[in-house]
Amino acid sequence: MTAPRAEIVPNTPEYETLPLIKPTGFREYDARWILGRELNLVGVQKLGLGLGTYFHECGVAPRVVVGHDYRAYSLSVKQALILGLMEAGCEVIDIGLALSPMAYFAQFALDAPCVAMVTASHNENGWTGVKMGAQAPLTFGPDEIGRLKAIVLGNEAVAREGGRLTRIENLNDLWLDEVTAGVRLSRPLKVVCACGNGTAGAFVPEALRRMGAEVIEMDTTPDHDFPNYNPNPEDHAMLSAMAERVRAEGADLALGFDGDGDRCGVVDDTGEEIFADKIGLMLARDLSALHPGAQFVVDVKSTGLYKTDPVLSENGAATHYWKTGHSYIKRKTAELGALAGFEKSGHFFFNAPIGRGYDDAVVAAGAILAMLDRNPGRSLSQLKTALPEAHTSLTMSPHCDDELKYAVIGKIQDEYRALLAEGGSILGRRVVEVIDVNGARVHLEDGSWVLVRASSNKPELVVVVESMRSADDMRALFRDEVKPRLARHREVGAYNQEI
């Protein structure tokens, strides 16, 4: 197959015969493109050939689990990927329609070192992508993606004999047995299960029922068009719909699941959303009482309360902040042997005895329900109120082209480093630290902070702020500091949502 091109005009003979692969689709820890405009099916086949070549390079048995999410085109993308993997001499194990954590589970259950899950996760319709790994439970990081990109774009892929395909039916039954085995509720809990008409709707309601929850299904019928809102439990539209349903039903909580079932969002019994970093803190309190001295990993978008929480300190728990991104937190959690890792976006990673180390939103949901079961006299809102006060924004994402976003972040880092060096302040508070491991997280003397980083999987920046004073101050940190600072850079465009 010829080397891929970055641009091919659709509806031409070249589009039907040559591989189209835009280089920016190779992201930090997975791959995502707008299908048709940035990637064609011939390009997907080329990607599969390159990925299979890389699996051979890794020195592992080239047995690959593949699955696909519920989008109108995902099956076609998966079939093209399978052709490429088989051309590379891989044994492909197709588990069909699946959640990403089901594909990760299949690596263990089917003794397959490698995985290639076709999903655009929570991205809007039109996007496609692949989450990949060759060492369960880990997924690719920048080094692996960089080598894969070089193989594919450099036309270094090697065709080999021996490719074959096996189809596995009903793997979801094995997965359901495992993820529900450890949770049996001893008290009735009324749970809104929100799936945004994504893939999770085909599997998650049954899992929650097996745990003993009274399930109120909400947008659980898979629909290619996502007619109500995008299945992203970090977005205001989905959280608002979940909150409204909780109030209407008098539910104990709502659990929201993203498009491929590896992220979980939460709304409490009063209809208030609880961001995943705060849920993580509640879980860390609960689990560190059962596992004294436990370690936890959180991403740089997460609340600063992990550093100062008295309950975690009393339980001897240690928390490590690390780069945002499911592959980064998953890898760091494994490296440290931490009990769990939490990302503000809703990825939860649990090692034994709770999980296998990868991000599974149903395992996270089970941990949340088990926490409530261990606190029979307290509601989720009461557990939240028991946390120290901190006012954290939702995640906001202004547009910034993939080709420009890292340069912009470099300039923002320089600005904040200079502000620190000159003893500067933000809204009357001295800057005391700039953490630049992943963008710029700027800490102020009262514990408040602001974060600006580049999105790892979309042409966007990511903004989060947290105030230790008040909700009004939290809004001011965004409106009077971060937003005007970013506005001075012409490359930064409109926000997807704002506080």
Overall pLDDT = 95
Number of strands: 21
Global Rg? 22 Å
Q: Extract low-pLDDT stretches.
A: none
Residue fraction in strands: 15-25%
**Total helix count?**
16
Specify the biggest β-sheet: 6 strands, mixed
Q: Roughly what percent helix?
A: 25-40%
Distance between the termini: 49 Å
Structural class: alpha/beta
Question: Strand order, biggest sheet?
Answer: 1-5-4-2-3-6
What coarse outline follows from CA principal-axis ratios?
globular
Molecular structure report:
The protein is α/β, with parallel strands linked by helices and about 500 residues long. Helices cover about 35% and strands about 20% of the residues. It is built from 16 helices and 21 strands. The mean pLDDT is about 95.
Would you summarize the structure shown here?
With about 500 residues, the protein is of the alpha/beta class. The protein has helices at about 15, 40-55, 75-85, 100-110, 140-155, 170-180, 205-210, 235-250, 275-290, 305-310, 310-315, 325-335, 360-375, 380-385, 400-420, 470-485; strands at about 30-35, 65-70, 90-95, 115-120, 125-135, 165, 190-195, 215-220, 255, 265, 275, 295-300, 320, 340, 350, 390, 425, 430-435, 440-445, 450-455, 460-465. It contains 16 helices and 21 strands.
Features:
16 helices; globular; 21 strands; six-stranded mixed β-sheet; alpha/beta
SSE inventory with pairings:
Elements: H1 13-17, E1 31-34, H2 41-57, E2 63-68, H3 74-87, E3 91-97, H4 100-109, E4 114-118, E5 127-133, H5 142-153, E6 164-167, H6 171-180, E7 190-194, H7 204-211, E8 214-218, H8 236-249, E9 253-257, E10 264-267, E11 273-274, H9 276-290, E12 295-299, H10 305-308, H11 310-314, E13 318-322, H12 326-336, E14 340-342, E15 348-350, H13 361-373, H14 380-385, E16 391-392, H15 402-421, E17 425-426, E18 429-435, E19 440-444, E20 449-454, E21 461-467, H16 471-487
Parallel strand pairs: 2-3, 2-4, 3-6, 7-8, 7-9, 12-13, 12-14
Antiparallel strand pairs: 1-5, 4-5, 9-10, 10-11, 14-15, 16-21, 17-18, 18-19, 19-20, 20-21
Helix pairs in contact: 2-3, 2-5, 4-6
